[in-house]
Design goal:
The structure holds 2 protein chains of 2 kinds.
Chain A lengths: L9 H38 L23
Chain B lengths: L6 H30 L15 H28 L2 H33 L7 H22 L3 H15 L2 H11 L22 H42 L1
The chains are: A mainly alpha, B mainly alpha.
Chain lengths: 70, 239
């Protein structure tokens, strides 16, 4: 049976669960957004290699880069 | 296993695996949450026992994530393997978040049970040091413009931080602490009432699978980011 009455400790139990849920949700959202962003960017560069030649956002170092994915 | 150190094979293997991990984590979290609020309250701790189901998994996987960071740093430093460096970097943020959650929820559990939000005992202090190692690792990487130099410096810090892991684990045995000794993962018998084992183990598994999903996704993102940087650099040279 679901028990949601945390009295007299509601002020401790709900913030613990609430903040945990928020932080985990933020981690998931950040991971998914970053994943989509770089996937999209990589697809764009691989389909139209000339589109980014004048991009001012150039890497300072590319030596640590990883080779082709496909 | 070693074949996965090849980025192409890693991407091919983890492509279908990652969505499965996300789905399993979601199911385990939902079931674990349900179980956590259906078990009876503890006769001594009352409903604060339910904080345990988010506090302990966060602490365990905060330590687990640092182990992943440290071992990956070792391979990155010794073998200069780019994928190992990506793995170390990818473990830092979720590990820091889990450790912060362990500190925060532990404080919320400590106030009603111990009568204090914080005490400088060995367990709490060593976990705080663990959190500072995470912050230091991320800050060091971000503060050096040359990514390779930053990665190497951070890997050294990551390795040094491994020393803290046994201190966290055995702090409750080596020193007198307000924090209780290990009771869940003690060989032989668990100090936990059997009624709390299903929600506890489910949440422990949920946090573990969630960390795995976050970690793999972040490694895959890092591989793509570096590939983008490579392509941009190549285009800049050709332009």
């Amino acid at each position: 049976m679901l028990d949601l009455d945390m009295a007299p400790y509601a002020a401790f139990v709900w913030p613990a669960w609430g903040v945990s849920a928020l932080v985990l949700a933020a981690l998931v959202a950040r991971a998914v957004i970053a994943s989509r962003k770089w996937k999209r960017e990589l697809e764009r560069l691989e389909t139209d290699p000339t589109s980014d030649a004048s991009d001012s956002n150039r890497p300072q170092v590319a030596r640590s880069a990883i080779g082709p994915l496909k | 296993m070693f074949g996965l150190s090849n980025p192409q094979r890693f991407m091919a293997f983890t492509g279908p695996l990652t969505p499965v991990l996300w789905a399993v984590a979601a199911v385990l979290l939902a079931v674990g949450t349900w179980l956590s609020f259906t078990v009876p309250s503890d006769y001594q701790q009352g409903d604060t026992v339910r904080i345990m189901f988010v506090h302990v998994p966060a602490a365990v996987w905060g330590l687990g994530a640092y182990s992943a960071l440290g071992v990956s740093s070792f391979f990155a430093l010794v073998f200069r393997h780019a994928l190992a460096d990506a793995a170390a970097r990818a473990a830092a943020l979720p590990g820091a978040a889990f450790t912060a959650l362990a500190l925060f929820t532990g404080s919320l559990w400590g106030q009603p049970m111990w009568g204090t939000w914080w005490v400088w005992d060995a367990r709490l202090t060593s976990v705080l040091v663990l959190f500072l190692f995470y912050l230091g690792y991320m800050a060091l990487r971000a503060s050096i413009d040359d990514e390779q130099k930053g990665a190497r410096a951070a890997a050294v810090l990551g390795l040094v931080g491994l020393i803290n892991l046994p201190i966290v684990k055995f702090s409750v045995d080596w020193w007198n602490t307000l924090h209780q000794p290990a009771s869940f993962l003690t060989p032989g018998s668990s100090g936990l009432d059997p009624v709390y084992l299903p929600p506890f183990l489910t949440m422990l598994a949920a946090y573990g699978v969630l960390f795995s999903a976050l970690w793999l996704t972040a490694i895959r993102t890092e591989i793509r980011r570096r590939r983008v940087l490579t392509l941009r650099a190549r285009q800049a040279l050709e332009a």
